[in-house]
Amino acid sequence: MEPISHVFMAFMDIFLDALPFMILGVLLSTIVENFIPEGVIGRITPKHPLGGVLFACALGIMFPLCECGMIPFVRRLMRKGMPVYIAVIFILVGPILNPIVFASTWMAFRGNPAMAYSRMGLTFGVALVIGFLLTRFLKSNPLRHPIEPAAASLTHRHNHAHGSQHIDQYDLHHSHDHDHDHDHDHDHKHDHSHAHDHSHNHGHDHHGHNHSHGGSRLMTMVSHGSSELFEMSKYLMLGALLTALIQTFVAQDSLSAIGQGAFISHVFMMGFAYLLSLCSTTDAFVAVSFAKSFSPGSLLAFLVFGPMIDVKSTLMMLSIFKARFVLTLSVVVAITVLTGSLLFMHFFLA
């Protein structure tokens, strides 16, 4: 029973650690869905690839989410017009390039603040490389299912809120009839009191319909948020369970012998980060516990690769991207992070 107890405790620690960030991501996605007007993201998104990469990095600063909250948020951004390549970069670097993660890394490595700067620098470098490769070589649609533009899925609530052409035409015709009744009543107000009452009641009903619009919007937001949370929770729970099993049955102390290898230590720590699936706001405190056994470069690889590609994020990305694209992206990110961490080890962390 003791291993089962350890698995359960590890599962709950991982799940409860990630759940608030996932809820935050769902909340932000709901706000984007209901309050960002159509076309805004498309208008403010830079057209130049370099500007798009910088824009994705800036989003990480504005929306400090870990990878658990990225997918629902990014899916809504794509529905609002965000290009796929910018969305992918945001998924990768957003969990790292934010003030919360920088502060946690700084606190964990108080004796070596260069680690915090190196983590941000390498992440930005990966964003540049991946952004260039995506804009250069991504020709086909990588989405598992087409992201339906938000305009195509507007509800009756949205139509009234945004004043669509159909509603405008309907209201115009409707208003014309109403004005006609009003004029008729005005000319014959003594002889046609019944018609005047009908016009008054009709305006009252229309006014009441507008008041019910607020309740409809609230219910739509609750429905959207709950369904999004349920969908993402499935992937989070599976990733947390796999990670709990690894943390319980793999003896970490027995693996420290390879920690000082110039190449193998980087590969090992990247694989370790992938399997552990730690939240980017807490992984620095795990990494610093290996500081006596592993090189700074391998710890940097752990801190950068894990938040970009891990068990949880892979399962979540598979919910919206094709498996071939996710696999290719994971390999390219792994090669880029490995190369970058070796370079940083040689020039900045020696």
Blueprint (SSEs and pairs):
Elements: H1 2-35, H2 40-44, H3 49-62, H4 67-79, H5 84-93, H6 99-108, H7 114-137, H8 156-162, H9 165-187, H10 193-249, H11 264-276, H12 283-287, H13 296-308, H14 311-317, H15 323-347
Helix pairs in contact: 1-4, 1-10, 3-5, 3-7, 4-5, 5-7, 6-7, 7-13, 7-15, 8-10, 9-10, 10-14, 11-13, 13-15
Helical run tally: 15
The assigned structural class equals mainly alpha
The topology string of helices and strands comes to HHHHHHHHHHHHHHH
Helix content: over 70%
Report Rg.
Answer: 26 Å
Percent of residues in beta strands: under 5%
Distance between the ends: 45 Å
Largest sheet: none
Question: What is the number of strand segments?
Answer: 0
Structural write-up:
The protein is mainly α. It has helices spanning 2-35, 40-44, 49-62, 67-79, 84-93, 99-108, 114-137, 156-162, 165-187, 193-249, 264-276, 283-287, 296-308, 311-317, 323-347. Helix 1 runs antiparallel to helix 10, helix 3 (49-62) crosses helix 7 (114-137) and helix 10 (193-249) packs antiparallel against helix 14. The chain is globular. The two termini are 45 Å apart.
